[in-house]
Amino acid sequence: MAELVPQAPSAVAVIIPAKDEAQRIAATVAAAKQVPGVDLVMVIDDGSTDDTGRLARRAGAEVMTHRKNRGKAQAMMTGAFAVRNREISNLKPGERPRHRALLFIDADLEDSALNTAPLATPVLAGEADMTIAILPPQKRSGGGFGLVVGLARKGIAELSGFQATQPLSGMRCLTREAFEVALPFASGWGVEAAMTIDVVNAGLRVAEVECELHHRVTGRDFKAQVHRAAQYRDVLRALTVRRARRLTSSGRLESLRRMLMRRNA
After folding, report:
1. Could you give the angle at the alpha carbon of 178 between the alpha carbons of 175 and 182, nearest 5°?
2. Strand order in the sheet with 130-134
3. 79 vs 35, 58, 64, 99, 213, CA distance in Å?
4. Which residues are within 8 A (CB) of 251 and not within 5 positions of it... i.e. 6 or more apart?
5. Given this model, what pLDDT does residue 70 score?
6. What angle, 0 to 180 degrees and rounded to 10, lies between the N-to-C axes of helices 147-160 and 222-264?
7. What is the crossing angle of helices 191-201 and 147-160, to 10°?
8. What was the pLDDT predicted at 262?
9. pLDDT(120) > 70
10. Does the pLDDT value for residue 89 go beyond 60?
11. What does residue 222 show for φ and ψ, rounded to 5 degrees?
């Protein structure tokens, strides 16, 4: 039987995890709808206490709601599963689904969300299975001291061989196949580093793409430092899990090799 070759996506679904983004979500949705190939924008209102969901719906997005905050990774999966359910719900018997590319973007991009278009182009053309945005220096000063970025970059290189320019970039476009091999997503802020490792190790094609995107920059006050500590914890956890998987896999292969040697002795 001939192997079925995955079809290149026919369109793009934009998935936007959002929590308390009422000031920015409408502009982000409006800009995302203008990305060529986009026929669906889905916002996952992840336990917001403001009008994020209502304003996203008014701007033209479909909205899924988590009554309590469940974290970025879970919001991303909720959105992607909702898109998949839509794609398969009206299929005729024997008909194969034509999956959309999944374009994950941050809720605070506002008008610059339109500039995620270069992420979708290689995926729609069948030239890449996942693209990752490289952002320019941001207009506002701030940011951390590079500890989390360095941890993620070194971990990705160690565990997959991929040299990530911006390992924590949340703007990514994936084929359905790339999404599936990355499941289940690592929890919390470890999702991007883990996703890169899993997709590369599955033998899929990953490309970095420069995008003129602008978003809020985390400051250096106490609240920001707490946030970065949580990021470091989550990235370290994701890397630790994948190191353990590699050791387990290596152990199983060695056990199999020894068993075969005994049999052939």
Report:
1. 140
2. 62-66, 38-46, 12-18, 101-104, 172-174, 130-134, 206-210
3. 18, 18, 7, 14, 22
4. none
5. 95
6. 10
7. 20
8. 56
9. yes
10. yes
11. -60, -45
